[in-house]
DNA sequence: GCCAACGTTGGC
DNA sequence: GCCAACGTTGGC
């Protein structure tokens, strides 16, 4: 059982979009490090922090879980797709994806809020220049964040 | 729209 | 295998 933070642009797939479906195929990852996490480490049942990026309020927007192992990302074979890769072949696909099931929407924990917590200062997504769309989250970070989310209902 | 950070490409 | 040029990400 591992934990991950996965970035999605809400214009493309928001937490609301994800909740409206049984699961969403995490297409479009075109970075080898992120791909390798999916290929080599992700397992069904792994916890996912659903993160909204490239938007007005970037931050954690929900909780999800991995619900498949890795399989080829079909968008790499589609010349009309933004994610088309002419160098990838059906026989030897370069890019893969997993299915992710959204479990619940949470209050938005903004990037700024994440930065205020010393417990989270080692989070990869907070590191300067971090651009990886998929990053591992430690059990301690996962626990801290889910406690923040649980605690919020008492505070308000 | 800007730009820092970082990844990829390709000539040599 | 080096590294300059170029492309992309993503917060601001």
TrEMBL record:
Taxonomic superkingdom: Bacteria
Signal peptide: none
Xref: Pfam families: EVE
UniProt domain EVE: residue ranges: 2-147
Entry-linked SUPFAM superfamilies: PUA domain-like (SSF88697)
Record's protein name: EVE domain-containing protein
Organism lineage string: Bacteria, Pseudomonadati, Pseudomonadota, Betaproteobacteria, Burkholderiales
